[in-house]
């Protein structure tokens, strides 16, 4: 598994998302097994949030990592309405309990809310000094938000990025690359929706004998400083995602994909889901 350096640690460029996990108890064992399989295959970065199933996804993660905490780079996120001086330590404690661990490797502000950024950063720094988190970062921040934050301690920005949503290529992605701040791409395979049926994506996939989702992941990972966090519960999806690392797209593939999915020509509002 290829890795990149994120605030002092090497992390795999393909991790595992967990949105929609923990919502249905009947799928609990399957979800735990999927994350464990992913870890075994090298996708040891796991992304979760207190928001997902209102803590349910963190509980799934907690069970998946219980006997292998040291193998995993754990990312969780705090709700903006909990991101104040008092709320952050309390939210972090609740997440730690559900995750069944005593530290989170990377703790993110899920999106900007009503609290001043300085207050959130102060609270993050205090958690870091107390050893509750290893480092902190943000999510759904555009260039102006990052400029206002102006903190080299911010370890990452997690944003929507896939072939259908290329807006960040105009300014945000180059900004992060210039500042050596790894960017985490969420919904990298378009939530398994219409993107995967696109004819051009399917043609490129057929040329390489791989699946459209693997092309979508390889397309993101062709760039420096980018991590993709696909979510997969079906074991065959977990295997395919881990293997996507090996796929090298050629100039002709990239041209075809550029024709089908246009790169932005001007500033676009940051897309979110
Ligand atoms: N920071 C934020 O605001 C934010 C927002 C959205 C998401 N996220 C994070 O990013 C993660 C990924 O985004 P996402 O879950 O919304 O969407 P996604 O990863 O783009 O897509 C997930 C969907 O694709 C399917 N899938 C996975 N691998 C596949 C493959 N190889 N072939 C075909 N289908 C495949 C999954 O099915 P199965 O599960 O059935 O295998 C699932 O239905 C989330 O889980 C979450 O951790 C963060």
Automatic annotation (TrEMBL):
Residues 14-260 form the NADP-dependent oxidoreductase domain. CDD domains: AKR_YeaE. This is Aldo/keto reductase. InterPro entries: AKR, NAD(P)_OxRdtase_dom_sf, NADP_OxRdtase_dom.
